[in-house]
């Protein structure tokens, strides 16, 4: 019996020694999987986690919105809000004149070729008139008819019911990434371009209310500015605003030398009539940016493409007169400055993310909805590499399985890869972080050099 106990003790000691040796070797093989990148945080709250739980509107904002709704005489408000949501989601950019001319020329050429194939004597002048009418008719049938949104008081209230909670959730989710990754950032000024209901003011105030001293909201709709001001003042227009130092304008500040620590353009670039207008607006907003420029759009192909165009304009275009020579650096969501790999996949799937939120309470409306959005954050500081670590962005839901996790990540190399994360291959810390992460979060580079699985 004593011999058996002694043998079992020796075996146990050997097992413990092997485990210690394995952990040491694992730390050498996977240096980034060591807990140093955790900065003392638990795995479920590692530095790459930027997702938020279901977001609710601030109590003051929700009460003010309900007071406006109770005072309005809009009939069928929920149905109109649902229709507006669907319309805005399916909204496309206005077709460019160059594109229309190219399509018209292609149609005309095709019709002339068909006419030549038929042969016979024809009246050229009459035929030319008929072809012109046919081209115009086909263009009218196949061209997206874009028109600017003109918000009066009634449509503004419908928009508030449709987008207030979701827009607030999307902007707050994006700003949360700045707050977490750059805790020293303490903005004193905010510029909100296309401010609408002022959701960027409320979201930024929830993070930096102690330091923000000037918030300028720019929207060309006077009715929207009025509603945004009423939301700040609560149920009574005579009350003092909940958030002070908020100023409403219909045009951007003129001076190119005036800058703001934080500049936000949420769901506004898609409302501009042409590529030229969007380019001018993007360059103007960047001139106004002292630290961070935040752009948010619907998580559609159109929204994603608008943001990628903005990214290319700022990264590639050099202004002749630059009052601030610091070049832009992509802060989020891209871990690189190469062309977006999702644009080269077929079928094209937009790079978008989601945030759960509680909508305004109405009969028949679920208690929890999800806002799907795309975003782009540019910084005046170079964030490439981030403290010597290479971070990848999770671009799809994480699939958790027994003892392994399926991740789709966008890497600093400009490639999208599918990775199966295990504790044995990638280290215990990275594995546990992967299990605790979700779509939109960041992870340290976890792809072993001997196993690359690019997503074509």
Automatic annotation (TrEMBL):
InterPro entries to which the protein is assigned, alphabetical: Mt_RNA_Methyltransferase, Ribosomal_Rsm22-like, SAM-dependent_MTases_sf
Pfam families reported in the protein's UniProt record: Rsm22
GO biological process terms on file: ribosomal small subunit biogenesis; translation
Record-level Gene Ontology MF annotations: 4 iron, 4 sulfur cluster binding; metal ion binding; methyltransferase activity; structural constituent of ribosome
A Gene Ontology term for the protein's cellular component: mitochondrial small ribosomal subunit
Keywords attached to this entry: 4Fe-4S, Iron, Iron-sulfur, Metal-binding, Mitochondrion, S-adenosyl-L-methionine, Transit peptide
Cell location: Mitochondrion matrix
Entry annotated with the keyword Signal: no
Subunit organization: Associates with the mitochondrial ribosome (mitoribosome).
PANTHER family: 37S RIBOSOMAL PROTEIN S22, METHYLTRANSFERASE-LIKE PROTEIN 17, MITOCHONDRIAL
Family the UniProt entry places it in: Belongs to the methyltransferase superfamily. Rsm22 family.
Job description of the protein: Mitochondrial ribosome (mitoribosome) assembly factor. Binds at the interface of the head and body domains of the mitochondrial small ribosomal subunit (mt-SSU), occluding the mRNA channel and preventing compaction of the head domain towards the body. Probable inactive methyltransferase: retains the characteristic folding and ability to bind S-adenosyl-L-methionine, but it probably lost its methyltransferase activity.
Protein name as it appears in the record: Ribosome assembly protein METTL17, mitochondrial
Species annotation: Oncorhynchus mykiss (Rainbow trout)
Gene name per UniProt: mettl17
């Amino acid at each position: 019996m004593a011999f058996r106990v002694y043998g079992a003790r020796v075996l146990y000691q050997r097992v413990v020694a092997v485990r210690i040796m394995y952990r040491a070797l694992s730390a050498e093989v996977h240096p980034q999987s060591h807990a140093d990148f955790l900065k003392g945080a638990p795995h479920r709250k590692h530095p790459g986690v930027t997702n938020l739980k279901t977001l609710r509107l601030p109590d003051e904002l929700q009460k003010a919105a309900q007071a406006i709704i109770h005072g309005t005489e809009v009939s069928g408000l929920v149905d109109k809000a649902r229709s507006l949501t669907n319309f805005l989601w399916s909204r496309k950019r206005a077709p460019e004149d160059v594109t229309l001319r190219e399509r018209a020329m292609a149609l005309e050429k095709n019709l002339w070729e068909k006419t030549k194939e038929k042969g016979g004597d024809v009246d050229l002048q009459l035929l030319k008139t008929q072809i012109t009418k046919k081209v115009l008719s086909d263009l009218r049938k196949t061209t997206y008819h874009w028109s600017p949104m003109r918000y009066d008081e009634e449509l503004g209230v419908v928009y508030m019911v449709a987008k207030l909670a979701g827009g607030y959730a999307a902007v707050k989710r994006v700003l949360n990434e700045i707050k977490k990754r750059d805790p020293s950032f303490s903005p004193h000024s905010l510029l909100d371009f296309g401010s609408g209901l002022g959701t960027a003011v409320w979201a930024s105030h929830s993070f930096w209310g102690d330091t923000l001293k000037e918030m300028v909201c720019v929207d060309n709709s006077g009715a929207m500015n009025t509603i945004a001001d009423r939301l700040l003042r609560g149920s009574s227009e005579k009350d003092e605003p909940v958030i002070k130092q908020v100023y409403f304008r219909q045009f951007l500040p003129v001076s190119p030398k005036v800058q703001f620590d934080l500049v936000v353009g949420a769901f506004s670039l898609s409302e501009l009539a042409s590529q030229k207008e969007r380019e001018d607006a993007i360059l103007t907003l960047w001139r106004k940016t002292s630290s961070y420029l935040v752009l948010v759009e619907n998580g559609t192909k159109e929204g994603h493409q608008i943001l990628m165009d903005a990214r290319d304009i700022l990264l590639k275009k050099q202004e002749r007169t630059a009052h601030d020579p610091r070049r832009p650096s992509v802060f989020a969501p891209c871990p690189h400055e190469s062309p977006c790999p999702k644009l080269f996949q077929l079928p094209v799937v937009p790079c978008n993310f989601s945030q759960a939120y509680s909508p305004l309470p109405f009969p028949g409306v679920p208690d929890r909805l999800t806002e799907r959005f795309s975003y782009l954050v540019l910084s005046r500081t170079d964030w490439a590499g981030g403290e010597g670590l290479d971070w990848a962005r999770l671009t799809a839901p994480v699939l958790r399985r027994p003892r392994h996790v399926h991740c789709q990540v966008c890497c600093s190399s400009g490639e999208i890869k599918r990775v199966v994360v295990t504790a044995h291959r990638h280290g215990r810390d990275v594995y546990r972080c992967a299990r605790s992460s979700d779509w939109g979060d960041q992870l340290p580079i976890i792809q072993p050099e001997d196993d690359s699985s690019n997503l074509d």
